[in-house]
Structures are given as C-alpha cells and as structure tokens.
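Much of what follows relies on a compact textual record of a protein's fold. A record is reproduced here so that you can trace the correspondence yourselves:

. . .
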Amino acid sequence: MASERGFSLIEALIAMSIAAIMIIGGSQLFGVTSERSKTLHYQSELMHQMESLKRQYRRPREFPNQLESTRDYQLTLESCGVDCRTLRLTPNRSHACRYWELSTDGSMGAGREGCWPESAVRAFAGHSSPS
C-alpha cells in the first residue's frame, strides 16, 4: 500500500494556480498604487509652486520670469493675460497624464482627461484669486 504522505499532483497545481493569481493581482495593485502616488506627488508639487508664485506676485506685484525645475519635473510659466500666468509641470519620466497645468485665474488642465480629481478642482477654484 502506498502511504498518504504529501500532496497529489492536482492539489499542487491548484495551490500553484492560486498563488499565481494572488501574485498577478498584487503586482497590478502595486502598479496602480505606484502610478497614483506619482500623480499625487506631481499635483502636490504643482500646487505648492503655484502658491509660491502667488506669494512672490503679492510683494512686487510682478510675476517672476522663470522658475527652477527639479530632476523629477520641468516647470514652465506662460502668460494668460495681464495679471494671469499658467504654470505647467511636465514629469521627466513618462506618465499617463503627460503634464498638469494651473493658472492664477483658477483654471486647471492636464495632458489627458481625468488627471485632476474633482475635489482638487473645487478646492483650488476656491483659492484662485491672486489678491
């Protein structure tokens, strides 16, 4: 008589299939979480830079001509009117959104639809005046 020790082939295949499904699900979750974290980082940096730009404007009532970029992203500043500037953040690494924009008049833009969450749009629009 054969002893009943160990797993049968079917049990081992089922266990390996379950492990593979868990690994695939975990890697997809990690990818989504990592991408979302980068998105939030870029948005936070852009909002911080815009607030800094507004503070600089309040002192001499003049916007700076250029901003310093970092190794993570490039910042560009363009005019959108007499007292309006648009600040664009473009990541140096590829990203699904490609870029984000904020204007001192409260408008927001991105390289693709849905890159700004509605809560950020509402919050920034409430603090958009350069006064």
In short: DSSP finds two helices and four strands in the chain. The two ends are 90 Å apart (CA to CA).
